[in-house]
Design brief:
The protein has 388 residues and is an alpha+beta fold. The chain has 2 domains: 282 residues, no CATH class; 87 residues, no CATH class. Helices cover 47% and strands 7% of the residues. The chain is built from 17 helices and 6 strands. The strands form 2 sheets. The chain has a 4-stranded antiparallel sheet. The chain is globular, with a radius of gyration of 20 Å. The two termini are 38 Å apart. The relative contact order is 0.17.
Length: 388
Amino acid sequence: MQKDFHYYATYCAARIAGYSHDQGMEICYSSQLVDWCSKTFLSKLSGPPAAATTQLQLELMEARTDLVGLQDITRIWASFHFLPYDLYAPVKRGFRTYRNKYRLICQPNGALVSDTVELAKKRGTQAVGIAMHVLADTWAHRNFAGTPSLVINNTDAYFYELVEQEGEEQWRPVRFRHSPGAPDELEQGLYSNSIYQWEESSIMNLGHGRAGHLPDYSFARYKYLPAWADYEESFKDNPTEYYKAFCQMIHAMQYLRGAVPDFSLDTYAYEVAAPWAEEIRSILNKRQLDACADWKALAEKIAGREIEDFDQKKYQAEYLAAEKAEKAGTFLGAFFLAAMAQKSMVTNAIFRSGNLLAGFSVDFSEKGFRGIRDYRHLLEHEKGEKTQ
């Protein structure tokens, strides 16, 4: 998904779920920050590198693709953008490496979605925003995995999108090109994607790179033949699924603010969203590269006030000015802690399943600190919260 959904649509969902304007702004800011909080961003702030929630294109191009480098990539992308659906999924064929990659395929309504929402409970708006980003991406990024893999993430010539032509819906072949920086041409069905690389673990085979930005467009309806599904046709209806994602976010945030007693998978707050359903569906179905203007207009209609745009620098001065012992109490400090908690939770779940693609992990909440220095701050913060 893009800023239009992670920022403005998330604000709309937060307000519909009952959060105040200020809380909604903090939640949607945190959701969008997930796509900006790279190691480059953190280094400028002298922040904890382990709090990285994304990798810039230049970082990915320079990333190591040995075992340690691939584990670092997987920890980031599987934790925040391609949450695994079933870490114990039965796989009847292939070597262990293939089975491990298969089990990282992202789908909505997996057990880790519940774990992500529960982790955000009583942790502040930053954790809520991170959880909403992760939850939303399970819908946009389904069928792809947050680890480099040709066999899991590749696409081929059989790739079609459903479009309306001359008043009728028709399947039109999608044409892919590698042209970084060039905008996708929706009318021609021409989309940029990553270069084909035959190496299984090439960085070009991470996530939905081989399908370009197409999975991130709410209007997209497409079908293709994933190798991991034995080349059976897979159909993706983004307008329908993005609406489910929106209503699931409302349900999750109702739970997080205490308005409903439980968060349940495959549950959607359709009735709560009903007054806005027609406008939301209209935005989701509109063919456009960027839906920010439409989502912002709806957000301002719901809020009855102007909604400021995302500003990456908004909280940086506060964090930089804070003393070392006080940084955890700043907005960004709380975001970094929430990000490390999410990454630790997912990485630990992957490791406990017997899958080493995200590296070794220890449940610090049970066994104490091991390894990465940054997590000592998280552990100390967790202990401090429990003793207050």
